[in-house]
Design brief:
heterodimer, A: mainly alpha, MetI-like fold, about 80% helix, B: mainly alpha, two-stranded antiparallel sheet, 14 helices
Chain lengths: ~280, ~290
């Protein structure tokens, strides 16, 4: 085989790889873009063809009491989940990274387990348990369930960051007389901020989006955003569902992107002021 | 405050992990144990069961072909989805890893964005592509290629399509992470020893990326086999999977003992796959994939 021909072959393989990559990206985004486009369609039906531009379906959405209720429920559950899971996750990750104790490896695996068990089984499990103690399904159960679902991801994120922070800073603070708590607050926590923010956002979006398990756990008569969408889809694929989907996409994609941008400008600002401080 | 405590006292560690540990024991381990107990309970009538121990649920599951059909179909759909994900997903992972494109981060970000978009929305958006009023049918009808809409929605193909859409990012990121951990000098070495590009890929890159591919396969299979929203939205009544069966048994028929039995069956089968995998590849790969 001549070198030239070999070269041509590998170039051909590379172009094929690129073409398939492009197709995969189109595959990933075409349906979502179709939904967004259709939400501005004037037609009464939720599908193609496009008949004209209209914001009518958004106006209708804003007056839909059920949707607003579901939005409020999801928002509260997601905010509470983000706050509680992040707190628990930071505590757990701190212990798992900094300390040596018996059963550490077992606990490490146990904490990741909820992410590996199918949601259907998590869903049924919690229901069986509250049935056994004859409690009704409540918002509290939904919240606890969401904390369970998000915990593994938060622990993984915080752990990854914690490993990179040298323990000498904390030890220096402790040896200079800082209390355990204040050394954590003054030294460790500020260094952890990126991981904490990432955890808050991830826990928020996982909770806000959760469908499968929430279908089992939600109290009778209460809908979260995704289950409300499912209920609306059961009737028909209306343009209103498309509008609702678009709003959700804006919320769940917008928040992390905004957070990332804020974080970036925050670190840039800090660097700038640090530089100024150095020259002064 | 630290009086009587050493600097990294194990007791403090236990205090720190206690809440999370308590939560997991109470909400995950205990429920699974209770589900196991429930599989031996007697079903009386919808929503009522008695603690009289029986093997009826297990007998029903083992001898009724109705359940076997569901199980077989679920395994088949899961395996097909995972296999297609692996084949289709390897290319983008390789491309992102090998490209000299300056804005590589953008390609990676675009893979993460779908994780932020609600799973329900991503799934139902396929109705706009495959449905009777969907993009494909409307375009084909307009150009006169077909005279009647193709029945693509509410088929097993649509379910697999939806699952692919949901699982491809997992696969691509898993493969990408393991490609990224390859020492690139190995490939240069192979090339300088006279390997062609294709040989270097076959002998060095591909074998070293297998752990990521394996982790991706496992993750995709487990998530596909455990899914039930996708078949509900995109499948017809004959395309229900095991997850739908569990949901109907519990939320529809209120037959809790049978529902618990089916859940345990799914749990054990998927657990066996995960255990077999972690025995050969190590759990750390999955963690790495999820963390990345």
């Amino acid at each position: 085989m001549s070198a030239k021909r070999r070269d041509r072959e590998s170039r051909w393989a590379w172009w094929l790889t690129g073409a398939i990559t492009l197709c995969v990206y189109i595959f990933m985004f075409a349906p979502i873009i179709a939904t967004i486009v259709l939400s501005f369609n004037a037609s009464m039906f939720g599908g193609f063809p496009l008949t004209g531009f209209s914001l009518h379906w958004y106006a209708k959405l804003a007056t839909n009491v059920q949707v607003l209720d579901a939005f409020r429920t999801s928002m509260w559950i997601a905010l509470a989940t983000a706050a509680i899971t992040t707190t628990l996750g930071v505590m757990t990750a701190y212990a798992l990274v900094r300390f040596h104790f018996r059963f550490k490896q077992a606990i490490n695996t146990l904490v990741i387990l909820p992410a590996l068990v199918p949601e259907t089984i998590l869903g049924v499990g919690l229901l069986v348990m509250i049935k056994a103690i004859s409690q009704p399904r409540s918002l509290m159960l939904l919240l606890l369930g969401h904390i369970l679902l998000t915990l593994p991801y938060v622990v993984l994120i915080v752990q990854a960051r914690m490993v990179g922070i040298s323990r000498t800073y904390e030890e220096a603070a402790l040896s200079l007389g800082a209390s355990r708590l204040s050394s954590f607050r003054e030294i460790t926590l500020p260094l952890l901020i990126p991981a904490v923010l990432a955890s808050l956002m991830l826990a928020f979006t996982i909770s806000f989006d959760n469908t499968s398990a929430s279908l089992f756990w939600r109290p009778a008569g209460v809908e979260t955003m995704p289950t409300q969408i499912l209920a609306m889809l059961k009737i028909s694929v209306s343009p209103e569902v498309n509008a609702l989907g678009t709003v959700m996409i804006l919320v769940t994609v917008g928040i992390p992107l905004l957070g990332g941008l804020l974080l970036q400008s925050f670190t840039r600002l800090k660097k700038k002021t640090e530089k100024k401080g150095a020259t002064l | 405050m630290t009086k009587g405590w050493t600097l990294y006292d194990p007791r403090l560690a236990w205090v720190l992990v206690a809440p999370a540990l308590f939560l997991i024991l109470l909400l995950l381990i205990l429920p699974i144990l209770m589900m196991m107990a429930y599989t031996f309970f007697t079903f009386v009538t919808a929503g009522v069961e008695s603690a009289v121990l029986t093997l009826d649920n297990w007998k029903e599951f083992l001898f009724d072909t109705y359940y076997h059909g569901f199980l077989w179909k679920t395994m088949r759909v899961g395996a097909m989805t995972a296999a297609i994900c692996a084949i289709v997903g390897y290319f983008p992972a390789y491309f992102i890893w090998a490209t000299k494109f300056r804005h590589k981060w953008l390609l990676l970000l675009l893979l993460i964005v779908p994780f932020w978009i609600s799973f329900t929305i991503r799934t139902f958006s396929w109705i706009h592509i495959l449905g009777e009023q969907g993009l494909i049918n409307v375009v084909l009808l307009k150009f006169g290629v077909i005279s009647e809409p193709l029945p693509m929605l509410y088929t097993e193909g649509a379910v697999i399509m939806g699952l692919l859409h949901f699982l491809l990012p997992y696969m691509i990121l898993n493969v990408y992470v393991s490609l990224e951990s390859i020492d690139r000098t190995l490939i240069s070495a192979a090339r300088s020893m006279g390997c062609t590009n294709a040989q270097a890929f076959r002998e060095v890159t591909l074998p070293l990326s297998l752990p990521g591919l394996g982790a991706g396969l496992l993750l995709c299979f487990v998530l596909a086999a455990g899914s039930y929203v996708t078949p509900q939205l995109l499948g017809g009544s004959r395309d229900a999977l095991f997850g739908n069966l569990i949901y109907d048994t519990i939320m529809g028929q209120l037959n809790w003992p049978m529902g618990a039995t089916l859940s345990i069956v799914l749990f054990v089968i998927l657990g066996c796959f995960a255990a077999a995998y972690s025995r050969y590849m190590g759990m750390s790969q999955i963690m790495k994939g999820m963390g990345g």
